[in-house]
Amino acid sequence: MTLYASPLSAGALAIPLSSTIQRMPARYRPKSADEVRRNMTAIRSSENKTEVSLRRALHAMGLRYRKYAAHLPGRPDIIFARARTVIFVDGDYWHARELVEGTGRDLRRRLQRLPLEKREYWREKFRGRVVRDRAITLALEADGWLVIRLWESDVRRDVEAAARGIAARVRRRHRRPS
Q: Structure pTM?
């Protein structure tokens, strides 16, 4: 029996390979453009489970909102127009949580696995996204909007707590005199 130690797992998980499973060829074959396109279109940028569950919780609390207003910078996920409040539910990976909150050490470690020519591309892509998110936040705030950015994993961990926090801020802001 042959064991395969996965280099991606922390403890190098041993997985037995049976004789019925064929080994992958030793040579890497990049995916075709069609395969990449199919994979990327399957990744949802809106209407994902986390956003839907958060919106359900907000609706159950009696809050009404708009979704994905194209006329606002960054196309916020949830918009409370009367309270001039927008919500973004940012994915931890795509919006580079490690760069925003920490040193980015884990992200750098992950990028080290890539070929040298692709590392800089992805580094710049993540940095650019962080800069763009900040610029969008500043533009909305300059226009009088309250911007609430939540990390997807935090919302997923406790949807009700996230919804309560949003509801409290929206209701407080809605009652303020103009």
A: 0.72
Q: Domain containing 143 — which CATH number?
A: 3.40.960.10
34 occurs within a structural domain: no
What tokens were used for 21?
């499973």
Please state the domain count of the chain.
1
Q: What is the CB-side half-sphere exposure of residue 38 using CA atoms within 13 A?
A: 5
Q: Going by DSSP bridges, is the β-strand pair 146-151/14-17 parallel, antiparallel, or unpaired?
A: unpaired
Distance, in Å, from the CA atom of 166 to the CA atom of 63, rounded to the nearest integer, reads 10
- Report which DSSP code applies to 6: -
pLDDT digits (tens, 9 = 90+) for 133-159: 999 999 999 999 999 999 999 999 999
Give the span between the Cα atoms of 37 and 78, in whole angstroms.
27
Give the per-residue pLDDT at 40. 63
Residues 6+ apart with CB under 8 A from 130: 95, 96, 99, 100
